[in-house]
Specification:
globular; 4-stranded antiparallel beta sheet; Methylamine Dehydrogenase, Chain H; mainly beta; 5-stranded mixed beta sheet; Immunoglobulin-like; 6 domains
Length: 963
């Protein structure tokens, strides 16, 4: 486990924090542990992994590989050069995968079934899951159903809607269901020690066992061809079972072989994988007498075999995804391989290469010259490698009993030049000058002279009281993470006589250590991150700690004011150590496997993610925004306030304040930001136009206590409480707070509400929104606002007939005879809702300026149900003109102009001054009208046959004679 030295910066902020801490102590404030700052997600820029492939499905030029807990997507469009392109982590442990259409269906261990969209294979996304009892090991698809098998028996899941899978039936199996295949109305299950079980799934809601056939060993897998089932019977060879009678399956033949795992059938051949390391080709020309006709031998652990389009894809838990050319089915030829980096314990990086110590395969070499696309260029040497260090053109690889020195003159092809054997329980190595320092669980610290790389020689030993797990060297001292003995400080001024000079116990199990600028950072396994002042190596003392909130801290690397921690199943943590007394997590990434080691080289952080592979992250910069959040008008710090920086509307960084109200947002590119501080119970404060260049920009906040709005929402017709209603508070047209009612109909808005006069709305689907204006709210006080919302009785949409586009702002009115009962206005989607009218028969009218109103009589409203009434409004024609006095030729103001057709008045206008102009813009359908002008004291004048067209203006002038 390598630890990288770094240089600490940000003294100004550390000094500020020190003064604050001192002030708090003087005031009697307890030095409580800071709250965990969740920080923001910290995604990698590149990864090379895959874990241990066990099964796969092939579709559309991609292999979807079940690989030790995740689903890997491997491009196999060129079978000779398979390349991993992406992965999808799942909640459980990916055991098996089937692909149909644009979805991958995953048997996900404890989760049951996971459905993953592969519409874009480069971006697989989980869209649904269906939890089933036990541990799901296999999945098969048939029609609208996915069948899961495992320790929970057989489960039938309806996946007609892949985004909403629903279990519809299940049945127990005679033994643990390991694998299955579905054909027609039957599922054939490899049922462990019970052999083969045949299950009727004609009715997926009622699956049931109809037949069994015991096998002599343990049934691990099953394939089907015609009326025969082929069972890979661990300890019992390949068993051929006649299933022409589902109720009475009978063994028809067998072929003895040792430890078969998987079987697949293609054409007249079966391909059987097994231990130790082989794939056998079995002729099935006579099912009663299966005969081996070919084989492929591997030094790995082949499991699942998929045969398609002339190739066999072998999931080898040790070697990766192996592609075999089956041009001659009896002579499989390996033509391609995708090698995952499955179990890296440690990682070092230098000169555009990363070196991963893989406990299974040995030393893996990755070309990381392009960090976004790392490439595996060498692997397989030195099985059992635990740690690796790189210095001076050499790699120093450590397994549990020897140190191997490798020449990196050709970095992609290291050459062993020297070895030192006989090291007991070696776990970690660090290099400084002409010496390598080995942490040994049995011997403590071993000092090895490497001045001649071809002949490494032990020159000194220093036993430690615990089990040495890790070592880092700095300034004439070796710092050893010594398990339950904490941190040990060993003077190496004389490498031949190393001697312990100081120690500092830790509460748990010191697993790894990094040193930077006078501090040691100890990954204390379940004890979190311990920060120890080593300015006096003879008297190290702990000054701060970050407790662990999950799995284990297994490694740590430091650069500047940040520590990068490998946190096992919790992935990679980034910790702000600008004040060593109060470390705060500021970023994280939950990796697919178990984060075991971390190192820093150049501008990148390299993570060994044991059980999965290697991930590469950008190193965060020291450019930051920092400050303190306090209660306005006081010196009271606000802990756990959220502080976020936005570039425009895009969230760039987010964190929370610690015990002292202090925050820091790391790694902000130069630019101008809006920074917001918020917390429940307070009014959000926004600082705009915050300019960030280099170093630290300080932004402090003073939050006021929020006012509160509370009340109850009830159904207007039944007085029942309405749960799930949304209550929104607006101040000056801006939404300030939103909440949801509980089961008792009560809501509470207690955040981001400054004093003022509010508009408050209550809404819920199926109810008409109710709005209350002029709600006066005082600072820090509670104002009660209750609502009685009416169920929607009338609902519909208003559109423009010409374009079919929605009409916003249209008025919909309900009339009982000529009495107006209710009105509503359409929203941006043209939708209206009306409630609160009694049951009855009504006329409903829709209107909007520049359109022709539409009336629908005989609309029946029934309480308790919604009546839908839609409208399609025609664009109105326009009548415009002037009315004058015929004698004087002067304009007449206040004259009425009426448009009639078929004896019905359609629209009316009035002339206005100073020129006596009228304009009728609504309610004029295309057609021929009689247009009449009238005014008291004048004789009416009418004009017949006036043609009106939609959207166009027709001009009609009048000259009225005095009466």
């Amino acid at each position: 486990m390598r630890a990288i030295l770094g240089v600490r910066v940000g003294v100004g902020f550390t000094g500020l924090l020190g003064l604050l801490v001192a002030a708090a102590l003087v005031a009697g404030v307890p030095t409580a542990q800071p709250a965990l700052a969740e920080g923001g997600s910290y995604p990698p820029v590149g990864q090379l992994g895959g874990g241990t492939p066990t099964d796969a499905a092939i579709a559309g030029g991609y292999a979807y590989v079940a690989a030790n807990g995740v689903l890997d997507v491997v491009d196999v469009s060129d079978p000779a050069n398979p390349q991993m392109v992406e992965y999808c982590d799942t909640p459980g442990n990916v055991e098996d995968v089937a692909v149909v259409g644009s979805y991958a269906y995953v048997a996900d261990g404890p989760t049951g079934l996971c459905v993953i969209s592969i519409a874009d294979p480069l971006h697989p996304v989980q869209v649904a899951a269906c939890t089933t009892p036990g541990w799901a090991t296999c999945v098969a698809l048939a029609g609208d159903y996915a069948y899961i098998c495992g320790s929970g028996g057989l489960r039938a899941i309806n996946v007609a809607n892949p985004a909403s899978p629903v279990e519809v039936g299940s049945c127990s199996t005679p033994g643990a269901a390991r694998r299955l295949v579905v054909s027609g109305t039957h599922a054939y299950v490899a049922a462990d020690t019970a052999g083969l079980a045949v299950i009727d799934v004609a009715d997926p809601a009622n699956p049931h066992v109809v037949g069994t056939c015991d096998t002599p060993g343990t049934a691990w897998d099953v394939a089907l061809s015609g009326s025969y089932a082929y069972v890979a019977d661990y300890d019992g060879g390949l068993r051929v079972i006649d299933v022409s009678s589902a109720a009475a399956p009978t063994e028809a033949g067998y072929l003895a072989m040792t430890y078969p795992f998987r079987v697949t059938v293609s054409g007249s051949y079966a391909y059987v994988s097994g231990y130790p390391g082989w794939v056998r080709v079995i002729s099935l020309s006579d099912p009663a007498a299966p005969n081996q006709v070919g084989s492929y031998n591997s030094d790995g652990y082949p499991y699942g075999v998929v045969v398609t389009a002339g190739y066999a894809y072998v999931c080898d838990a040790s070697r990766g995804l192996v592609v075999l050319d089956l041009t001659d089915p009896v002579v499989p030829v390996e033509v391609g391989i995708w090698n995952p980096v499955g179990y890296p314990n440690s990682i070092a990086a230098a000169g555009g290469y990363a070196y991963a110590a893989d406990g299974g395969d040995g030393l893996s070499v990755l070309d990381v010259s392009d960090p976004s696309a790392p490439e595996l260029v060498a692997s397989g040497d030195l099985p059992g490698t635990r740690d690796v260090a790189v210095a001076g053109g050499y790699a120093y690889a450590l397994d549990t009993w020897r140190l191997t020195v490798m020449d990196l003159s050709s970095p992609g092809a290291p050459v062993t030049v020297g070895q030192l054997s006989g090291i007991s329980e070696a776990l970690a190595v660090a290099v400084a000058g002409d010496y390598a320092y080995v942490a040994s669980a049995a011997d403590g610290l071993r000092v090895v002279n490497i001045s001649n790389p071809a002949a490494p020689t032990t020159v000194g030993l220093c036993d430690t009281p615990g089990s040495a797990q890790d070592v880092v060297v700095s300034g004439g001292y070796a710092y050893v993470a010594d398990s339950d003995a904490g941190l040990r400080v060993i003077s190496i001024s004389d490498p031949a006589s190393p001697v312990e000079v100081g120690s500092c116990d830790t509460p748990a199990y010191a697993y790894a250590v990094a040193v930077s600028d006078g501090y040691a950072y100890v990954a204390d396994y379940w004890g979190g991150l311990r920060i120890i002042d080593i300015s006096n190596p003879a008297a190290p003392v702990e000054v701060g700690a970050l407790p662990l909130y999950g799995e284990y801290f297994r490694a740590v690397a430091v650069s500047g004011n940040l520590a990068y921690v490998a946190a096992d199943e919790d992935g990679l943590w980034v910790v702000d150590i600008s004040d060593p007394a109060h470390p705060v997590r500021v970023a994280y990434y939950d990796t697919p496997g178990n984060a075991s080691n971390v190192t820093i080289a150049g501008n990148y952080v390299y993570l060994a993610d044991s059980n999965w592979g290697v991930m590469i992250f950008p190193k965060l910069t020291d450019v930051s925004v920092a400050g303190q959040v306090r209660l306005a008008g006081t010196s009271t710090n606000i802990e756990n306030a959220t502080v976020a920086a936005y570039s425009g509307a895009v969230l760039k960084r987010m964190t929370v304040t610690d015990f002292y109200g202090i925050y820091r947002l790391w790694d902000l590119p130069a630019g101008t930001y809006t920074v917001k501080a918020s917390k429940q119970g307070y009014v959000t404060q926004v600082k705009s136009s915050v300019s960030v260049g280099s170093g630290t920009t300080y932004v402090n906040f003073n939050l006021t206590v929020s006012s509160r709005l509370s009340g109850q929402v009830k159904d207007r017709d039944t007085s029942a409480n309405v749960a799930g209603a949304t209550v929104t508070a607006l101040l000056g047209g801006v939404v300030r707070a939103t909440g949801t009612t509980a089961a008792n109909g009560i809501y509470v808005l207690d955040t981001n509400l400054p004093a003022g006069t509010y508009v408050v709305r209550a809404s819920k689907t199926g109810y008409v929104t109710q709005t209350k204006s002029g709600i006066s709210v005082a600072e820090g006080a509670t104002t009660y606002v209750n609502f009685s919302i009416a169920p929607v009785l009338l609902k519909g949409q208003v559109k423009a007939s010409a374009s079919s586009s929605a009409l916003a702002g249209a008025t919909v009115a309900v009339y009982d005879g000529e009495t107006l009962k209710a009105t509503a206005t359409t929203n941006a989607s043209g939708v209206y809702e009306i409630g609160g009218v009694p049951a009855g028969t009504y006329r409903v009218v829709a209107s909007k300026p520049t359109y022709v109103r539409q009336s629908k009589p005989g609309i029946v409203v029934t309480l308790g149900s919604t009546t839908y009434v839609n409208f399609s409004l025609q664009t109105s024609g326009i009548l415009k003109g002037q009315v004058k006095d015929e004698n004087s030729n002067l304009p007449l103001v206040g004259a009425t102009v009426t448009a009639r057709s078929g004896g019905v008045t359609w629209a009316t206008g009035v002339t206005a001054g100073p020129f006596g102009i009228y304009e009728i813009t609504s309610d004029l359908p295309a057609g021929s009208f009689v247009v009449i002008a009238s005014k008291a004291g004048y004789i009416n004048q009418g004009r017949a046959g006036i043609a009106v067209t939609a959207g166009n203006t027709t001009y009609v002038n009048f000259a009225l004679q005095p009466d």
